[in-house]
Design a protein that fits this description.
By secondary structure, this protein is an alpha/beta fold. It has one domain: 2-enoyl-CoA Hydratase, Chain A, domain 1 (Alpha-Beta Complex), CATH 3.90.226.10.
Length: about 130
């Protein structure tokens, strides 16, 4: 099974790909964490001059994977949702970081949006 987010670098351009095509790249907790990690990783690489963020399959990102997230906690109270936790040293929680992390990247970030881009998917592609 491929990573839910992958990074390839060609000619100083980092291609960050969302890899849950069977779910239209819907955001589950694993995706939130991987997107944040990818943004931080490309930020730390001085050889990268630009980033292209794109989704595998028929859509960029369909937003939250509600079924997956509901299994983690109480949706009414937010208790038990790692999504609302702030990683150590972070100014934002995971739900906010998927967009915020791209604003911190010191080079241009281009969202190659196609097909579905809804809710959290649109935030991810727009940088917040």
């Amino acid at each position: 099974m491929p990573d839910v987010v992958s990074i390839s670098i060609q000619n100083h351009v980092a291609y960050v790909k969302l890899n849950r095509a069977e779910k239209y790249n819907a955001l589950n907790m694993e995706m939130f964490e991987a997107i944040v990690d990818a943004g931080r990783s490309v930020s730390e690489d001085p050889s990268i001059r630009a980033v292209v963020l794109h989704g595998e399959g028929k859509g960029f990102c369909s937003g939250l994977d509600i079924a997956s997230l509901m299994a983690e906690g109480d949706i009414a109270t937010g208790k038990g949702f790692k999504l609302f936790n702030k990683p150590e040293g972070s100014p934002a929680n995971y739900a906010q970081l998927v967009g915020y992390v791209w604003k911190q990247v010191p080079v241009p970030v281009i969202a190659s949006i196609h097909g579905v881009a809804y809710g959290g998917g649109l935030s991810t592609g727009s940088g917040g």
